[in-house]
Fold each of these.
Amino acid sequence: MNDETFHLTPLDVRRYEFGKVLRGYDPERVDQFREQVADELERLVRQNQELEQKARSFHDQLKSFRERDKALNEALVHAQQLRSEIRDQSEREAQLILREAQAQADSIITNAQTDIRRVEDELASLERFRRSYLAQLRIFVERQLTEINAAEAAPSIPHRGE
């Protein structure tokens, strides 16, 4: 990943101010959604930090394995076959550790992408609901206005005594 890419932090999400407009989004729902996004970002950041720590640990383990391998090579010159087996085993373990870490990272990314698609679908559904609600409200208001206009245009009923 490129370091010049845009990085969004949970604090950025919490502090972002949306402009106010007439008939805009519900501020409470925007704040609630923003809080949910920030919480999810925090969870993902923590999870990413844990994975980075594991990867550093695995790299440290690999470094340790290679240092041990070197010491064994120097100490056991006549045990060439044993040295080769230990190094091969260390390499296989290191590759397995790296493959597992990559698979775990891929799984996290896939889950995050699925979550993003789900949230986008929910947002689209909410937008459709909003449009439908506004259309129904418009029809209701127009009917009420028609009834008011009809009532105003109707001849008035004379009061008793007139």
Amino acid sequence: MHSEKDDFSFTFNTTNNIGFFSSNRSGNDDIYAAHSICTVEATIIVTNAKTGQVLEGATVTMLDDNKNEVETKITSAGGETVSYLDCNKAYTIQAVKEGYEGGTFEMVPSKGGKTKIDAALRPIEAIITPTEIVLKEINFEFDKSNITREAAFELDKLVQVMKTNKELILFVKSHTDNRGDEKYNMELSQKRAKSTVQYVILKEIDASRITGKGFGESEPKADCQGNCTEGQHAQNRRSEFLIMK
């Protein structure tokens, strides 16, 4: 705060987190405001969810509340990254490592100081069942079929499974809820299935190993007819990744 001029009479308002002081730096005695810089020291610890072992070389990405990337770091030998973030803001943490299912973790707003986030990742085999690959919900923007950042994060798990299991052949089924015109829902689900398949192929998976089809609202998971709750609509608006071979 100090300059080569005469700075004096500093006072700080703890409620509004702002200070005031007098100075003759402009040639006259004037009052200036001083805003404090508040940061949070966030330590992310990435571990194997099955064994508890720390994971070196994992990629940790910090996203702000608009899902914009703030920074990306690689974990140390102790499985840690340290980031200095703005106070009073929420962040989303995405942690990935080859051989493990990528994880998403939330960091609540903090007034400062230090915080630790445990990011436990399951071995990638945990999402494989005898009949399908189980991912979290693949979300699309309303009335759109483009792959969102969140959807890409889930689909990258699928890509990793297919690269590890070279003989795996998958069939993608895309579904909608029953709101809207039946024909339109069928067309929309077909576009979403196509976008999903194309994303995986662009990640260097042979096109012969993955196909897809939209089923619209024809195969609801929650058969609630015209009286569906928002939760049931969400159940029906899904993608399935069936193992064909």
Amino acid sequence: MNKTTALIFAAVIVASTATSLSLAWGRTAEEVSIEIVSDTGATLLTIPYQEYRQEGTHISKQYLEAVKNRNYGIVIRNMTRDRVGVVIAVDGRNIISGKRSDLKNTENMYIVESYERGQYDGWRTDRNTVHKSYFTDLQDSYAMRTFRDSSSMGVIAVAVYREKVRPQTRYEMLKKNAPAAPAAESSAHGKARASRDEAAGTGFGDAQHSPTITVSFEPEQDPVQKILVKYEWREVLCRKGLLQCGQRQGSRLWDQDEYAPFPPL
């Protein structure tokens, strides 16, 4: 049986202790979930949109308010008994290789051990370095600046894969079985031109140390879960009715003037 090579992230191995998960899969004792967090560690609020099953894959769609220039990370918590592989794509690009992503099991992926968590803060440029993710305008996004690709702008996507063979290794890993990303790639440049000025994207920020080592991991053919988070600027979410952004309605028995008004003339 052929096995793919993987990289273990030694710098971000942390036991999971949190009990509040923003994107939970189902309500079972075993689940894999994600949070989008700011660089201060605060969990960013998501708005549930759709949840359904497609063949053997559980799919969840959420909305998220993007705040311009805010750094963010993707926290994945594995509450199952086995380690899992996760393909992570931001704006349609795999965050490890930079290549166009379809969330397939042949792509580079991170590995999260059982009952542990991993935090992924940006675009990987070598075995020891990532560049931080931050919310920005479409033209400043990594996908547009590097690949001229706006085909999946404003989407954080995660596909969760079980492992065919499960060796007893207690680490968080990165599967490495694809060639390096090209410097540029043709794309769906020009799509959604009318809404380009208001589109949110993810930028290529400051470098951050994140060392790795190599291991083996063979994913199953199909993902057991897919998590899709559409992030938008606040004004877009307001216009779509996903946030209540109008004037706050006062309480009839609470918000009262101090004195009685004069009657009309």
Amino acid sequence: MFRDASLMAGKDLRVELRSHVTTQQVAPFAILMLILFGVALDPDRGILTRASAGLFWVSVLFCSLLAIQRAFTIEAADGGRDALRLSGLDPAGIFLGKAAAIFVQLGALELVLAAGVVVMYGTEITGLPLLVATCLAATAGLAAAGTLYGVLAAGLRVRETLLPILLLPVLAPVLIGATRAFEAALGGAAADGWPWCGLLAAFALLYTAFGTLAFGTLLEES
């Protein structure tokens, strides 16, 4: 399973490195969102600083939708999805590999966005361990849930519009928990953010376990 996961993750990441979609399309979109938020709220720097955690995760959420759609679009042409079914790879390995590739892409984008929040919004990081743990747990949850729902929508003509409808309600707890944990890490009481980080870790483990078990059936039906 883990060998198949490494093969799938490597394949998806090589595709992204060669196509430059993440660096030339998704990353500029994320930075533009931060700039627009900053322009809209700049007259009141206090509100901008207090809202920086929520603005960060809203930007990550929209970027994750683009990354998840891209992860399944690359197999839509030339019978790639049928070839994936017939490849003999462990479905659990396919799930973990795709989720790992999305995790890596989102992690890179979060580094860029975090630097943008600190530079443009003047945010001060007071709880770095909590911030890192929150990013890891929330990103794992986004990647696992996104891969699971992405394969559900992959075989449909309206997958571009159906995926956000399916995914956004599910990711609402992640967005809320990550925002509250970030607020504690960015100038609040760091101890108050760890329970939210634990909730994010539980969400990630739940969707990773469910995806590992159910991805094969969903892939066959998509």
